[in-house]
Amino acid sequence: MVRPAPTAKVSVRAIAALAFAAVVVVALDQGVKALVVANLPYGQAVPVLGDALQLLYVRNPGAAFSFAVNMTWVFSIVSTAVVVAIIVYARRIRSMWWAIVLGMLLGGALGNLLDRLLREPGFGRGHVVDFISTPWMMPAIYNIADSFICVSMVVFVLLVILGVNLDGTRAPSAKQQRAADAASRRSVADGSDAAAGSDVTARSSVADGAEPSRASRPGVAEPDQRAPRDGRDVLGHDAT
Q1: How far apart are CA 204 and CA 208, in angstroms?
Q2: Which of the two residues, 34 and 212, has the higher pLDDT score?
Q3: Cis peptide bond prior to 121, omega within 30° of 0
Q4: Is 64 helix (H, G, I), strand (E, B) or coil?
């Protein structure tokens, strides 16, 4: 009877780290958005560091950084799919790095998804609150959730390049893989040579064992021509 392979245990620490990162990002994003809506004038730039950093409150019906403004429903669905996918794959995470990265991505996706679900003009079509403007870097206006999404994607790519798996193990580099393949081929070759040597030894042993058996076999005694028959010697004289 074939027994099913045992499933890996869920890492409580990794899930806790992911959930903590997501909660922190969502709370920070929604809290700052509430302050922006309550205190900043709509559409008017407020310099923070001159032209390098400005606060500019706008409502974005599109994706991050004000892209695709006429596809709000599509991005609501995409954000929901991202959230569900991260929650499903959370059970496989053992690496704390992956837990934090996916937690930031989950928090950013949830932050903007809450805007699309709960803000005007309606459920699933709500406009995302954007307020960070850095004209020297990009013309788009973004928010804290967008920032965490971008940071998490950068770290995501770095972890993939470094070969860090979800379970915390490291994938071997190309050099290590070539060395492992060479060692495997040597092991196979050594095993083949050892098997061939054992076969030769076994055949020699069989041959050596056969010779003594033939030598120890009793031969058929030749009749002695000089043995007396009927009391007479070989010359026919009476032995008596």
Answers
A1: 6
A2: 34
A3: yes
A4: helix
pTM for the full model? 0.66
What is the DSSP secondary-structure string of 68-123?
-TT-HHHHHHHHHHHHHHHHHHGGG---HHHHHHHHHHHHHHHHHHHHHHHSTT-T
pLDDT at 45 over 70: yes
Amino acid at residue number 6: P
> From CA 47, how far away is CA 18, in angstroms rounded?
35
**What is the CB-side half-sphere exposure of residue 213 using CA atoms within 13 A?**
6
CA distance 193 to 186: 11
Q: Is 25 a residue whose pLDDT tops 60? A: yes
Burial string for 71-91 (b: 16+ CB within 10 Å, else e) reads ebeebbeebbebbeebeeebe
- Alpha-carbon gap, residue 127 to 59, rounded angstroms: 5
For residue 130, which of 43, 6, 192 has the smallest C-alpha distance?
43
pLDDT of residue 167: 81
User: Taking the CA atoms of the chain, what radius of gyration do you get in angstroms?
Assistant: 43
Q: What DSSP string describes 108-173?
A: HHHHHHHHHHHSTT-TTTPPEEEEEE-TTT-S-EE-HHHHHHHHHHHHHHHHHHHTB-TTS-BPPP
What is the band of 240 on the pLDDT scale with cuts at 50, 70, 90?
very low
Q: What angle do CA 80, 83, 87 make, to 5 degrees?
A: 140
**Cα(87)–Cα(102) distance, integer angstroms:** 9
Residues annotated as catalytic are 130, 146
Q: Measured between alpha carbons, how far is 150 from 98 in angstroms, rounded to an integer? A: 15
